[in-house]
């Protein structure tokens, strides 16, 4: 059973999400929060698999709430919900540790698939789209000079794992990595898993951000 906490200051969206999720086999809503402070507290108390997090809420917004939930170190993952696909707050949410984001007008099937993907440790945003988003808003993610330092997390990587991380940061899918590095896709999946474990990435999105931070890839013009 995948457990979900809904955080949104608007009652109608919360009601709609609850009806959809509670009516889906294998999913259940364990709580509703109408502000960020409440979302952080309920996430700690209820330990849901996924928090559906609205960005704009009074007081503590969804970005800060995401940051606090992730910083707590629990297994709970955050899926940002936003109104606009180029909303800068959504990018800030990913930087804060969210495992992806979806538009609020997403189709029911896509929302359910996204929740399940996040719950199992995957990223909702596709690798290629993640790269495009980071390229467009790199200034939100990277502090000045951030790409000039050597990231200690990379020292544990083998030469092949380093190549795989660069490929992840470049936006290649597992199939593309397999083709270009002349590996089987199953071998690539194992490499990706080991890379994310060694660098402490919660999901593929965070791995891309780490690759940016370490200077392995740079924003394209």
TrEMBL record:
Residues 150-215 form the HTH luxR-type domain. The keyword Transcription regulation applies. CDD domains: LuxR_C_like (cd06170), REC_NarL-like (cd17535). The modification 4-aspartylphosphate is found at residue 54. It comes from the Bacteria. Signal peptide: none annotated. PROSITE patterns: HTH_LUXR_1, HTH_LUXR_2, RESPONSE_REGULATORY. Pfam families: GerE (PF00196), Response_reg (PF00072). Residues 3-119 form the Response regulatory domain. Keywords: DNA-binding, Phosphoprotein, Transcription, Transcription regulation. The keyword Ribosomal protein does not apply. InterPro entries: CheY-like_superfamily, NreC/VraR/RcsB-like_REC, Sig_transdc_resp-reg_C-effctor, Sig_transdc_resp-reg_receiver, Tscrpt_reg_LuxR_C, WalR-like. This is Response regulator. It comes from Streptomyces vulcanius. The lineage of its organism: Bacteria, Bacillati, Actinomycetota, Actinomycetes, Kitasatosporales.
